[in-house]
Design a protein that fits this description.
Blueprint lengths: L1 E5 L3 H13 L3 E5 L2 H10 L4 E5 L7 H10 L5 E6 L4 H10 L3 E4 L4 H12 L10 E3 L2 E4 L4 E4 L2 E2 L4 H12 L7 H8 L10 H13 L6 E3 L3 E3 L1
Parallel strand pairs: 1-2, 1-3, 3-4, 4-5
Antiparallel strand pairs: 6-7, 7-8, 8-9, 10-11
Helix pairs in contact: 2-3, 6-8
């Protein structure tokens, strides 16, 4: 899952991004609304965690732009105000969910994951395919009933492949969904991660390489 965090309080923004990355999400961070619009115009995000009171371009206008463009991106709006009227207004603008500050980080994670499941064809919270069972909420993976310990990026790659439901996923798509924009697109990080993931999942291999196209399960 790829997430954009838009928050002008830099310490909070960086803390949220760090926590989401620990949950095997690819996260980009910006600190104002103008930068958010720039990123949205370049990258495809599953979820935008959007502070409402932003400098340069207000969060409401960022949300309106996402709706106007007809993007499948889901918006979790943050605000220091917990008034019901503010929450209603935010949802009417086009936000998919609303979370007042201060918030429990576990709740933020749960809401981001719930929104991420709604960006494409609805899928069950626990993914199962080819003897593999992946639970994004618990960060657990089992193969044939045996738990498999994965690093965050390995987990993220496996989740993207599982969510594709048998379709081929290119290396570029994996790079986009599992790594942030600071990753060099010319590195072999995807190939190395897939090799390690195959080894950890054991025999017989379940990740198939489609020459010239990518990978699938």
């Amino acid at each position: 899952m790829r997430v954009l965090v838009v928050e002008d309080e830099q310490l909070l923004a960086d803390a949220v991004a760090t926590g989401l990355r620990r949950e095997a999400m690819a996260v980009d961070v910006v600190y104002d609304g103008a930068a958010a619009l720039e990123r949205i115009g370049v990258n495809d995000y599953d979820v935008v965690v959007l502070d409402r009171d932003l400098p340069l371009v207000h969060g409401d206008d960022v949300c309106r732009k996402i709706v106007e463009l007809g993007m499948p991106t889901r918006v979790l709006m943050l605000t220091a105000s917990g008034d019901v009227s503010d929450r209603v207004e935010g949802l009417e603008i086009g936000a998919d969910d609303y979370l007042p500050k201060p918030f429990a980080f576990s709740e933020l994670i749960a809401r981001v994951r719930a929104l991420g499941r709604r960006t494409s064809v609805p899928l069950p919270p626990v993914l199962e395919r080819s003897g593999i069972k992946l639970d994004p909420n618990r960060r657990e993976v089992f193969r044939d009933g045996k738990e498999v310990q994965l690093a965050p990026k390995e987990f993220a790659v496996l989740e993207v492949l599982m969510r594709s439901e048998g379709a081929v996923v290119s290396a570029e798509q994996l790079l986009e969904k599992a790594w942030d924009e600071n990753t060099d697109p010319f590195t072999n990080v995807v190939r190395v991660t897939v090799m390690t993931l195959r080894r950890k999942l054991g025999e017989p291999p379940v990740i198939v390489t489609v020459p010239g196209s990518g990978y699938r399960i």
